[in-house]
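INPUT
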Amino acid sequence: MKHVFRFFLFLGIPLVLGVGCSSSFEASPDGTYRVRIPVNDSKGQYHFQTVTLRSVTNISSLAGSVLSIRINGKLVEEDKSDGTKQMWISDFGTVPAAHFIKSGDVLIPADYRTSVMATLVYQFENIKDFYDGYSANEGLLFPRTVLLDLSETGSLGNEAEYIGGLDMFVIQPYNQGLLPMSVNGGILAHEWWHSIFGVRQNESAKKIVRTEIKPDSKSLCANDLQYQGLNEGIADFFGYAYSHDPDYGSMSFKSTGKGERDLKIPKALAYDDGNCQMDKGADSKVIIHNLGASVAHMLFVISEDWGIEETSRAILNFTNFYMDLYTRDYDKSFIGFKKILPFLFENHHPSEELCAKLKTIVTISDPFSGYCKL
Amino acid sequence: MKVLFFIFLLSATTVRAEPSLFVGPLLGGTSYSTSDGGLNRDSQTSFGGQAMYILDHWMGGLSYSAYSVGETGGPSLNVSQQNQDIEAGIKFRLLKEDFSPFVGMGAGAIFQTITTNLYDTSEVNTGDFFIKDVGGGILWRFMRNFGASIEADYYQYSNVTGFKYYITLGYFPIL
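OUTPUT
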């Protein structure tokens, strides 16, 4: 009999322990989950915070009404016979399986990937709210899709981008040792703007009946440069407006030039000649980002006078006008900054003090069409 | 559900005479499904110990194993994981010989300690799950007081699945 007792004693102890364990991750009665993740505070600094995920419907895949994540996809780049490159996504990856432990009613990510994904969901929920505040999400389809850790042939990784053709965000594997891009709220808000910009262009294209059929390649190239530069600059600004950190990029990217993406660092906005510098063999990415950095700094200076909210509203108003103009004229003639910058001040005229500040940045002659006599 | 599982383990047990005990350290590996989704798995070395009470065809066992998943992520944000798994198992020996294959199942608790580092800040949290497994192996009593077992189990807890495989060099004390 004592052997029977010993036998079951062996079995009993761990089983009792196991039965007492928690294993379910049920949502709160209101359908939310509390998680502990790295999140930026109002000064742009990242700390552990216990936050609520409001949109998740499947805690294992972290899928929900705002975001759907796919992981470990593949982007292929090939040289075509005509010398150009062709890129496509050969593998959209798999649905993740997030691992958490439960501490009280708070879910703790049990591995790095889960920590990143949970933060991504939280940031996307808040970024959606942020842009909803300006009614800017109109036309976007939800849930948004992120291809996380998408590997790309020949790429060193460390890039985040929005791919308009797929209406998906791509975040490549990150190995720079700083704050992962997928956690960096400023970078995510920046990329989100690109999707808004793309949708607005599509909306404008639907409205406008085009008549011109003979494209002017020089104007097309110059307008494309300006379009992309504006897109980058406004995205940079909204990254700051969301994260409250004018140098949010440096949290994740090792700088290749002092203050190149820091909105506080003055950069002159001089491009207005309609020339396509890409014709001269310049790196288009560098030109676009430099132009974007100039635009972003100009917007930052305006926001110091008006505040972020008012500046953001002015930018969205400006974007609507610009999109219509761009969609109608992008291959006809160069749309100079002089034509579009005044739209920034249509609803809110700049003070003399602001004009004086802008004078040191914008070196184009009379760029604001009477709003500022520079 | 867990209680029913416990009752099933008890009811499935037939206890006979001539008992013996087998105790010893174990060394092996634990594979686990990663959060990457699909069937992606990583594997870590695990160690621990086990004791089995042997009665006729049946073995009632207790096992403990531990394994660590080192830091994943980068210098600014990384997460590491320590796991301790304590389980009871019941096994059926196909032969009542010194060398016999066996099949079995087990259940218990896995305790996880998660350390997350963000810049200079570190947080440690613990959690636990009910874990269950099924598997099989071979027990070989090659000397009167010494023997070895090799075993492989498929396990599941939370949304994690994987395999545990280990070898135990053990001692058969005279009862």
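end of record. The mean pLDDT of chain B is 89.
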